[in-house]
Write a sequence for this structure.
């Protein structure tokens, strides 16, 4: 059995109830527990903060589709060489976009992916926030507005890129391992 | 009056009670409201997650002194060209370390700062997590252990670097402005 | 029908006989024609030179296993952001290594992949040749010899990295599109 | 007493008269001897050349205000991670600009500083000369002329950036230490 | 006698006939055997593929002059720190262009060389293919077409850059030594 | 007649006497006036400071041979893409080292040049000062001392690298043109 990460995972029964419940819930929904839940559970306060931030950006209603949000995660995580996030969110992206090719395309080189000009502008901006945020300024906004992104959408793009800047560093530092289940998810036609 | 950030700040009275209370509390303690509270308040769920994460890492007891934690923030935020975090946490670092010179030294070039070899090793690692986390691996741990850092301390170093990777990107993206009050804090001898 | 590349593909019947025969042969063996054959066919002399070079390095007997050679291709092509080579050779790597996970791991961050120390040393060297060949020197060889690589094996590692430096640039420049067939190859257990 | 630099400082009485007189003069004017004078004094010919160059650019009349010149020094020295120059010239910038905030802003990220579009264009150019002078060309001049910079002003911007390219490297190499006095200079309102 | 490269050179009489004939032919034409022929001869299949690729791009008729093609080789090889290719092809460039200064200018900084705007656009594109091919896209083509480059010419520029990406890596890896004869070739006026 | 630089050159008779005399002297010694004298003459104070600095480092007696000093200039100027300094000081290096090949070797990739381990250590350090001086520290000194460099020699290496950091930026900014005479100097055997 391959390790979840560099740090030990506490026994489920020793976790605070809310953390345990979240883990049980995702297990029931997905059929397995993605390792990020197990790797972060040893620090319940950080676990709660991380998933609260995640849900606030990734689960809410809003101008960005869920597939678009996952695209931001995959593209910025690839730029940060984060195996866990590319593999895990690549699976979610394939499912959300109902497209078995899109995640690999975005991960290797989003400029060559089958995406719309709107998505290209979104990812150009997300990558700038990820890699060179000190140069982000007013000059970056008009191109986004032209593609129909509202001020709130632009915040969402930047905030997702920022949250995964955190997540990528934690996954890389802890050597978080993507579950084997992710690799094939969303690649086969639904029967 | 200079703007808090690129995005409008909601009136205090329209904020959820817990957000408002946190803002009032920091105002009472510090004598002013650091702009990060005002800039993030328009997104209460993200506000709560961010400060929960912050408190979990920066306020808890642990092996790293509070000055050491602020040193990590200043050094990594400088590497990310984040004006808000360098100026605001530079002020806190001066106060925590009771050293009026340390923040400017660490911000410009921590390798030349008046810090101990332990602190140097800590910042070398924090910067690697900040700038090149994909290459972090087992080879980085022995040097940290030799300086007395426990496995939990090492997690703290990496997690603080990771949280401010998020924070720096949000501050840079929103054009968050450091309050004028920060610049002089901790520079004068206590009377 | 999505385009093979930025440049038009000549009709099969207008190609020189040897080029056409090579294309027919790969079609019979694989069940489809990988687009690199179609994209390069319009320049028969370059087509012949490219596949002669490819076969000399990838098809011959030698100290490197075929899976190891494909690993070099995937890792260096990922470093060069080459969608065609990562997707196409990722498929071949999965098959050669009989491992459905290995290609995605190596493509995102080979340092985190399930590979042996020998393979890690091989990829470290291949990446140095790919990204910073001007600093390659005697100091790089002992680590490779310690892992059992002969002088001929080391040439093979470097030469494969060098050949795909060419291939990645041609694929990126022509916008060569990976065939849809590649994405799922080698991901499912053999029945 | 902390060392001035990695190299020993000669006794004042052993210095050539002109070098000693310059040091005495700055001591009388400033109330202390900035360490750059002490660190360079052991090489009188280089000392004379350096301060001659410095005075030719920083003390003369000309189209750039003295505050603008110090801004160039602070911004380019920060890009070169030069603690001595950022701290010492940051102090001078605060005084010349009568602005206690400007030096820290420019040092961390001049793009976010409270500066005019003219100053922004000036610093963009100074940084290009500092960091990538091989790509400077005719295309860089029109933007500067539009902001009212004459050909002589443009020379001054580039030459100040170039002189501190030298100065930053000497300070970094010698481990030149900023005097404690600099840190607080210009931060308090004049009484 | 200085070594040809890190690897031994096989005796001429042990080489396959076609390889030997090519070496004899270049010896007769040039008066010496450029070391690239000797260094690659130990791998006849790779030797044949390399020179077939080389001839297909460098010797054919086409829209690019032979001097222009050598310019691409020199500029991209300099960017890759490849001593063999800069020195050897620098000699050929001086001869092809009948200009004793051009090779050194292009090698150090082609932006400052005595070249036409057409050649500048050609080299800008060749360098982008050499150094950052993942970002090459449709936006790069109009500038080339404006300077009169056909679609086939653009392929040639990219393919020469790509071939020398391979060649530079092999020369750097093998420590291929430029023959002493190259350094002075084309520098003196023809008598 | 090609221009000396982007800026006009004042008539010789309008220059201050000392500047004019220096120019006349170099003309008499070399047979031509290197363009750096003409390009800087329009700013006599900077001219005097620059050449005073130059002479203090390049003309004095000391532990570094004159060929070694020119090697530092060529290697660091190549790293800064400075055509004037590579071509002009390449010529001087060939003459000082009585070696017609050395300048081109050092300019393209000093790691592959025919230099001694002592010279290699010297250039490694000079390049670190040129390109990343903020990380220079005590750890860099032992390797230099082992090769017999004294503390004064180390200062000289760093100071030459620093002076040409300035010089390269001025030459690149002004578009200073190397005189045609330099290209062939030192390439032919002395009769």
């Amino acid at each position: 059995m391959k390790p979840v990460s560099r740090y030990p995972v506490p026994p489920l029964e020793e976790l605070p109830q809310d953390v345990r419940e979240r883990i049980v819930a995702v297990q029931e929904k997905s059929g397995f527990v993605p390792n990020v839940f197990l790797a972060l559970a040893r620090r319940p306060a950080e676990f709660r903060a991380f998933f609260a931030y995640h849900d606030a950006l990734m689960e809410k209603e809003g101008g960005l589709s869920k597939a678009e949000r996952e695209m931001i995660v995959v593209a910025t995580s690839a730029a940060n060489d984060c195996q866990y996030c590319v593999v895990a969110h690549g699976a979610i992206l394939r499912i959300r976009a109902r497209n078995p090719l899109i995640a690999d395309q975005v991960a290797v080189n989003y400029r060559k992916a089958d995406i719309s000009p709107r998505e290209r502008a979104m990812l150009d901006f997300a990558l700038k926030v990820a890699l060179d945020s000190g140069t982000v300024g007013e000059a970056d906004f008009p191109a986004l507005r032209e593609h129909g992104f509202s001020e709130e959408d632009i915040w969402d793009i930047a905030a997702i890129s920022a949250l995964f800047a955190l997540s990528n560093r934690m996954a890389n530092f802890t050597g978080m391992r993507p579950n084997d289940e992710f690799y094939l998810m969303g690649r086969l036609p639904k029967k």
Remarks:
- Chain F touches chain D at residues 6-7, 43, 45-46, 48-50, 52-53, 55-57, 60, 80-82, 129-130, 133-138, 151, 155, 158-159, 161-163, 165-170, 172-175 (CB under 8 Å).
- Residues 111 and 124 of chain F are 9 Å apart (CA to CA).
- The longest helix of chain F spans residues 151-174.
